[in-house]
Sequence to fold (427 residues):
Amino acid sequence: MIAVLALIAGVALGLILKPTVPVELQPYLPIAVVAALDALFGGLRAKLNKMFDDRQFIISFVSNVLVAGLIVFLGDQLGVGGQLATGVVVVLGVRIFSNVAAIRRHFFKA
Amino acid sequence: MSPADPAPSTRDPAASRAAAPVEPPRAAPPGQQFGGDLLTEIFNNSMDPGYADAAEKGRRDTPLGVAGRVLALAAIGFLLAVAYLKVVADTPATTQARDKLVADVKRDQATADRLETDAEKLRDEVSGMRDQAFREAGGDAKYLRDLEAVTGLGRVRGDGIVVTVGDAESAKDPVTGKPKAENSDGKIYDRDLQKIVNALWYAGAEAVTINNQRISGRTTIRAAGGAILVDFKPVDGPYRISAIGPSAMRRTFDATPAAKQFRALAGKYGLVFGVKETDGMTFAAAGDPQLRLARPVPSPSPSPSPTPSTTPSGGGR
Fold:
């Protein structure tokens, strides 16, 4: 419950503050969002499996975002930023899908 | 990654799983044990193994942990909101730029049209004054007028035919309702218009227009990207090619190879092609051809340079 409230509070905060993303950080925003979604769904699945752990959740969120950003940054420096970003999105996307599938199985048994 | 290790059992499972985080050893089928298939690996271990570890150790919620969880979730929500706002803010920027360009083009086209009308009015004025000067000098301007009509520099009126050609209707995508990729077979190109205009000249036409643009000896019909330019002005389909000529022109035109070819294409690819006789058409004059290099041989005595314009005009055909 508190988690949902925190999530809503974060969204509200973002919508109210309307921060402008610095130009140099803009390429990382979509990657960061996908990484955050991965951590979010991973945490939700763990919660439903009664295995949730705060430490694991926080670390996975922070490291997901940082590593995804780092990979894209590295790719940009090497001139293959787009391809590496695609790679990150594919890997995280697969994880999100299978986590959501597990969550769905939990709710609908199907 | 080594695909399909032939002797999996001889290797240490822990070493070959170096990339995967520590996890309870699972009884995997022999073929998959050594991580040959990255996607299978991701699918099987989509949840961070740390959750399982934590559950095994039986960690408890601590106030600090809950605070961190709240912070992390708030950060995720914040991130989502920021990304949403950025997407919303980005979309108008691209359309704005496009709208501005479209407005610029429209404005410039309007300016060009106005200038064209001005030029036509001034040309009428000039020819009126010239006629008057001729009359006062006791000469006859009729010869000059005839020449102008023949070369496309004067307005003409008469009976003739109108040829209508247009692109074939492109097939619509059943899902999106948008036209599918243009079928190049049913599309009208600049060379098609050239072919028809040439066939009309062959059939005896004395004056030709495409979408009310008079074709003179120096008018170009060509393509720029996907658009067709007649005298450097874009024309849109369906194209109406009108010609003033003898009463037999329709029959002659229908017998030309070009007309036969277009009829065949219309039957095969569904492009628009029609010929119809029209009476009492009036054609406007073509744009000034602006001779820059060629000079009339018997140089007119009072003014040696008949067209002092320096405006760059495009090349001929």
In short: The mean pLDDT of chain A is 86.
